[in-house]
Amino acid sequence: MKLSARNQLKGTIVDIKPGATTTHVRIDIGGGQVLTASITNEAADEMKLTAGKPAYAIIKASSVMVGVD
């Protein structure tokens, strides 16, 4: 797989929660960090996602916000 996005974080799927139209996929990327992605149910089905399967969190954003207390 080759992508233009530079933020590719390899990890392991730890949880999959299908909803009415989207599926939330949680990926453990190590160091106690877990990312959650919301993808279509169709995409989740096509990729045959299962807990324990290696996966990449690929992040491509047009903006990043920062907040502080």
Which descriptors apply to this entry?
69 residues, 1 helix, four-stranded antiparallel sheet, OB fold (Dihydrolipoamide Acetyltransferase, E2P), globular
Walkthrough of the structure:
10% of the residues lie in helices and 51% in strands. The chain starts with 6 loop residues before the first strand and ends in a 10-residue tail after the last strand. It has 69 residues and is mostly beta strands. It has one domain (7-59): OB fold (Dihydrolipoamide Acetyltransferase, E2P) (Beta Barrel), CATH 2.40.50.100.
Topology:
Layout: E1 7-18, E2 22-30, E3 33-40, H1 41-47, E4 54-59
Antiparallel strand pairs: 1-2, 1-4, 2-3
Short description:
By secondary structure, this protein is mostly beta strands. It has one helix and four strands. The mean pLDDT is 92.
